[in-house]
Design goal:
2 copies of one chain form a homodimer.
Chain A lengths: L4 H4 L10 E3 L4 E3 L7 E6 L1 E8 L2 E9 L3 E2 L3 H4 L5 E4 L3 E6 L7 H20 L5 H13 L8 E5 L2 H8 L3 H13 L3 E3 L12 E5 L1
Antiparallel strand pairs in A: 1-8, 2-7, 3-6, 3-8, 4-5, 4-7, 9-11, 10-11
Chain A binds a DNA duplex through helix 6.
Chain lengths: 199, 199
DNA sequence: CGCCGCGTTGAGCCACGTCAACATAGGTGG
DNA sequence: CCACCTATGTTGACGTGGCTCAACGCGGCG
């Protein structure tokens, strides 16, 4: 099982089944059948759906695994939508996940859930800032990181605020120098993404 | 491995290592070493701790598994406190958890995380009502369930409201007939629990 | 008996929600 | 190429739900 690795192994860049989705695109819906995924790059929101109602149910960032419930139930429990350009790979890479990888996934899911909960506590300013920092990846090494800010609608539903409040708060963060607008905002159907530098 | 089950199996009521804790008691702290636990009865809040700061990070109810991260990290990532009289058993029952039980635990954790997120959205009335219904166990079969309502302090931190707002909201729910006060309230250090009937 | 933790209730205020109008950009169809 | 529509983002005016501050009741404990 560890013999001919060189024969079957492929470079990380050539993993089969990689899927790319963009802002607002649905990776899978509640009840659908499919694989579990690991996020290689980007961000995904999970939602509970009942009829036409959607309610924010979780956040997944680079490195997180989503849809693992399909491995035991045979279908997804949530709907998954991209918050920006997102690249995913099937998980586990092959066969059945080991107990160790499952435990790591479980621990990561609980930490991420705590992150999402924290985004709904406190004042609007700190909520939005926390969300932006989360999306920026919390790397204190780099002084500045460029991120694609999700749609206001998504940020509002994640933080439990309104679109207007998020818009105003982002303006405050720009005044405070935490954010610097770079890309084009406003506009069309698939626009929505603002490039920003996070300090 | 499936041969002499009758020789080693014990009645469910005689599981070794069962632990009972009451309101406000700490099951384990961040960084501690210990077992993972499954909640047989009751409710537990998980908190992120940094220094003296505690922030609500998760909710665990009957049937949920907590502290599984200790199986991979060797220590707990959160602090666990009982919200009422709670009975716990070590998890997994013996040895290493199977992939299937881990997947079930993961799926349950994500559903519970979505529950906790929902408790921080919407108006105060619906938040507190949702929390009470969660604690009541969501069994639509019984018209009335008796539960031990946690301390206002806990309910406030879980829902992201203030103690005063939760107190007023519970009053509204009693007026609306959703709750009926039964036990003794107010008072001492270890009192804090109000028996209530939930309809 | 005094102290402390918990719960209740009231008064006032403010951060945020609500409602509205407008700007911008893309897609679509003529 | 233009007219129109839609989705998104911005900004202002206004009202209010919940936070803040405060005072008090109650019960256990040292």
């Amino acid at each position: 099982m560890q013999a001919d690795r060189s024969a079957t192994a492929a470079p990380a860049e050539a993993v089969q089944g990689i899927r790319n989705i963009t802002t607002g695109e649905v990776l899978y819906g509640t009840g659908d059948q499919g694989l579990a995924w690991r996020i290689r790059r980007g961000a995904v929101r999970l939602d509970r759906t009942s009829g036409e109602m959607r309610s924010f149910a979780g956040l997944a960032l680079t490195g997180d695994v989503i849809g693992a419930e399909t491995l035991i139930f045979g279908h997804y429990s949530f709907e998954a939508r991209a918050l920006g350009d997102t690249e995913l790979e099937p998980w586990p890479p092959s066969g059945t996940p080991s107990a160790e990888s499952l435990l790591r996934t479980l621990a990561a899911a609980e930490r991420r859930a705590a992150d999402a909960l924290a985004l709904r506590a406190g004042e609007a300013l700190s909520r939005v800032r926390q969300l932006v920092l989360l999306l920026a990846g919390e790397r204190p090494t780099l002084p500045v990181t460029r991120i694609a800010v999700p749609r206001l609608r998504d940020m509002a539903e994640i933080t439990g605020l309104t679109i207007e409040t998020v818009s105003r708060t982002l303006g405050l963060l720009q005044k405070a120098g935490v954010l610097q607008k770079q890309g084009s905002r406003g506009g069309g159907v698939r626009t929505g993404l603002t490039q920003m530098s996070v300090t």
